[in-house]
Design goal:
ligase activity; flat; alpha/beta; 30 strands; Succ_CoA_lig_flav_dom; Acetate--CoA ligase family protein
Length: about 725
């Protein structure tokens, strides 16, 4: 059934009737009608109002059959003793009918009993769950995993945004841990993947078409080699679904962001001549940082600040103002923002705290309303400010930063922002921007992504976030960005909260971090497990060239490092190349007899620089090898800087010839390996001392981005 064949009118009528009756869930027979309208296969069934009707229905379907209680008040039928399986005779159905009624009345004496559902019992198959839930961040999401009674025990479930495409549905079948079961194990036939994927798409279309469907379960779905049938259906309604969030157009976002990041004039509201004041620090950073545009201090009690004429109000400023940076207490922001709006500024950067983060949601909303009235975009409040190095712009009260490069970083937290600053300074990471988002009263990550995606000064983006205001807007912006440059996200708050009040299995499973994890992956985002990893990925990804294939080869001077590097490659999802005989022989020609070819290639620790050089050359020359992982062991025969210089020289030689493969290195040794690692990093080779995990993790992140960007095929299963 194609989308245009869906009977939406029938579902609309059904949902309206249920809501008009004051109910928030559909009975199983009603759920079956809704599913049938969307082409979701269900078994033959009927509702019996007496034992005799149950027997007649069962005889018509053929034995065995299943009996289920039908009651708007009894959602979890199994818990109520309201499900009986495998009834294979008229006598069994007769007795089962009376047993189910007794169980239901014992479970809830006040429940309305509509009848007993008599359902054709399906032949054995693989039990899976297909469900949907309304996530507070991402809206409608669809779920797939192993089903039946083990669904909440195993929790082997994956999520995608709804409506899901056929490609999304296919990827879900391969994303669960038990994916191999679906392909057939121990002689069992593989399930009908097309039928399963079709059910995922249809259910996702159903919940997307009707916002009132808050949760949905098809559990179990019995999947066989010849099809997939939803044996049990649960649909839960929300009579007042949340309205769609208002959206800014891409053109409007870019217009505001261009003026924010590349302003011609900045006003500092609350500028101060007194050292130690935030208004003084912001002014000093703007002036000392070399910002070439106009800087207007605004302070009614000063005539001049840092050699610049001060103005009592932003309305007194003689020229246009693109950005107003606020360094006044929160209670003074609304009145000053009114004036900024009347001045025609594009953005207000609200450094002060004292808004929603302290419980004053009303004050924050007042500020948002004022800004919206004038078309002013708000950055913050409760932030450290922002940097955009291409404009020599340090609009912050924190330490300045002027190492220009291609990495754009953002954070919700001021503390994390300062960690970003410190890491960047220590590692000399070139940044295009560092942006504080704070409370995200207005501007948020999707606005930044929209700008950085088309910003010629930015080559990679890394974001620390605690939440997303609008998950769908973020996904849309990320999908538009990832084909051009990598996006790394550190999502704080991974602890499972659960969905205690959820009325469905899917709802209970969706309450933790797995929804974020799956949907960020769906958007092509690289998720960092921690702060240091986020920063290292941001530093490394612009350095590494994009691989042209999956074959990774390890060349190491120490067998122990080779084993650890192999483990790290597996953990990072990399493919260690199966070395063909001719390449094996070529490597063996350069290593001693007691070394080991294969993969890792162990050249042993006592080898001179010429052995490192020869094997690295071979790894770069052979077109079947797509990436190199180097494991160096500190010896007097080949000192660290000798290794670093020869490696950088050889890699650059091949780059000059148009052969540009990603090369990462792990250096083990005395403290000299620190200088050698820094030298390699400066020459486009991601290298770390004292660790086998970090360089390989960076390479794995580059591979994940290349796949998400469509530059490499999906990872082999």
């Amino acid at each position: 059934m194609a989308q245009h064949d869906y009977d939406r009118a029938a579902v609309r009528t059904l949902i309206d009737r249920v809501l008009a009756e004051g109910r928030t869930s559909l009975t199983a027979p009603e759920g079956r009608l809704a599913c049938q309208a969307y082409g979701i296969a269900t078994p033959g069934e009927g509702i019996a109002g007496s034992a005799e009707e149950a027997v007649a229905l069962a005889s018509g379907f053929g034995f065995p059959v299943v009996l289920k209680i039908v009651s708007p008040q009894i959602l979890h039928k199994t818990e109520a003793g309201g499900v009986l399986l495998g009834l294979d005779s008229a006598e069994a159905v007769l007795a089962g009918y009376h047993s189910i009624l007794a169980n239901a009345r014992a479970y809830d004496a006040e429940a309305e009993i509509v009848g007993v559902q008599v359902q054709q019992q399906l032949p054995p198959g693989q039990e899976v769950i297909i469900g949907a839930v309304t996530d507070p961040t991402f809206g409608k999401v669809v779920a797939f995993g192993l089903g039946g009674v083990l669904v909440e025990v195993l929790k082997d479930v994956t999520f995608r945004l709804a409506p899901a495409t056929a490609a999304d549905a296919g990827s879900m079948l391969d994303s669960i841990a038990a994916a191999e079961v679906l392909r057939g194990v121990r002689g069992a036939a593989a399930v009908d993947r097309e039928a399963l994927a079709g059910l995922i798409v249809r259910l996702s279309d159903l919940v997307s078409d009707f916002p009132e469907i808050a949760e949905a379960d098809l559990n179990p779905v019995l999947a066989t080699a010849s099809g997939a049938v939803a044996a049990d259906i649960r649909l839960i309604l929300d009579p007042s679904p949340a309205p769609a969030r208002p959206q800014h157009s891409r053109a409007d976002i870019l217009e505001s962001m261009e003026r924010l990041m590349k302003p011609r004039a900045i006003a500092v509201i609350g500028a101060s001549a007194e050292p130690g004041k935030i208004g003084n620090s912001v002014m000093r950073n703007l002036v000392d940082g070399g910002f070439a545009g106009e800087i207007y201090p605004v302070n009614p009690k000063a005539d001049e600040i840092l050699g610049r004429k001060a103005y009592p109000s932003v309305l007194d400023v003689p020229g246009e103002v693109d950005v107003a940076v606020f360094a006044v207490p929160a209670r003074f922001v609304p009145a000053a923002l009114e004036e900024v709006g009347r001045k025609g500024a594009a953005a207000a950067v609200l450094i002060p705290s004292g808004f929603a983060e302290t419980g004053d949601h009303a004050l924050q909303q007042q500020v948002v309303d004022i800004a919206a009235r004038y078309g002013v975009r708000i950055l913050g409040p409760n932030i450290y400010g922002y940097y955009y190095t291409a404009s020599d712009l340090s609009a912050t009260f924190c330490t300045p930063y002027d190492v220009k490069g291609g990495v754009a970083l953002s954070s919700q937290s001021g503390g994390i922002g300062m960690a970003i600053l410190g890491f960047s300074r220590t590692t000399r990471t070139g940044v295009s921007a560092i942006v504080g988002l704070g409370n995200k009263a207005d501007l948020d990550e999707d606005d930044l992504l929209t700008f950085f995606a088309q910003d010629d000064n930015t080559t990679a983006i890394a974001m620390h976030l605690e939440d997303l205001k609008d998950g769908r807007a973020f996904v849309e912006a990320a999908r538009a960005t990832v084909p051009h440059k990598p996006v790394v996200v550190l999502k704080a708050g991974r602890t499972a909260q659960g969905a205690i009040a959820a009325g469905s299995h899917t709802g209970a499973l969706a309450g933790d971090d797995r929804v974020y994890d799956d949907i960020l992956r769906q958007a092509g985002v690289i998720r960092a497990p921690g702060l240091l990893e986020m920063l290292e990925y941001a530093r490394s990804l612009p350095v590494l060239p994009t691989p042209k294939g999956d074959n990774v080869v390890i060349i190491t001077g120490a067998g122990g490092s080779g084993v650890l590097l192999s483990d790290a490659c597996v953990d990072a999802g990399l493919t260690l190349m199966q070395i063909p005989p001719d390449l094996d022989a070529a490597f063996r020609a350069f290593i001693p007899p007691f070394g080991a070819a294969g993969n890792p290639i162990d050249i042993t620790g006592g080898e001179p620089p010429s052995t490192y050089e020869a094997t690295i050359r071979l790894g770069l020359e052979d077109p079947r090898i797509h990436a190199l992982v180097l494991g160096y062991w500190h010896t007097i025969v080949t000192p660290p800087m000798v290794f670093a210089e020869l490696t950088a020289r050889v890699v650059q030689e091949f780059r000059d010839r148009g052969i540009n493969k990603p090369v990462v290195a792990s250096l083990a040794g005395d403290t000299e390996v620190e200088e050698a690692s820094a030298y390699l990093f400066d020459h486009g080779i991601v290298a770390y001392p004292y660790t086998t995990e970090k360089p390989v993790a960076a390479l794995g992140a580059k591979y994940r981005w290349a796949r998400a960007a469509g530059l490499l095929p999906a990872a082999p299963n």
